[in-house]
Amino acid sequence: MFAKKIAVAAVAVAAAGVLGTATTASAASTVYNTGTATISSTMAQTCTARTLTLAAGSYGWGWHDLAPSVSSTVKLAAGSYTWTDCVTVGFDYDYLDSKLQLNGSSASPATLHASRWLADGPYTYGSFLKPNF
Question: Does pTM top 0.90 for this prediction?
Answer without folding.
Answer: no
